Amino acid sequence: MPDTDQLQKGQPPLWRAALFGLCPECGTPGLFEGAANFRERCPTCGFDSGRYNVGDGPAAFLTLIIGALLIVAALLLDAALAPPLWVHVILWVPLTVAAVIYGLRIAKGALLASEHQRDAAEGRVEKPDD
Is 104 exposed, middle or buried, given 0-12, 13-18 or 19+ CB atoms closer than 10 A? Predict the structure, then answer.
């Protein structure tokens, strides 16, 4: 696993690339276009994000974790203060949407940066010479 010292010049560490949506090649902001979609290419260095298969792998896992945490928080709030239902609606719906979208950006950014730093590619089977 590469340390910060082993990264090429300009490449941000994994945590910084994920947290701030930085290009894993040059470190400039703007990895995402829209809520959680990658840009086709980095406007600064031309990094091609389509080369890596990040997909929506983190989506289900992340949604389940965030959902569980927010349900616990909602139950604790209800037990402590017993607010009316409309308070729960205006509090938890936007918080859930924001947490899932920002969490997806972090998870997908981390996965893309990790694949780039390790030069990940599809596996290939070499056929033996006959």
Answer: buried
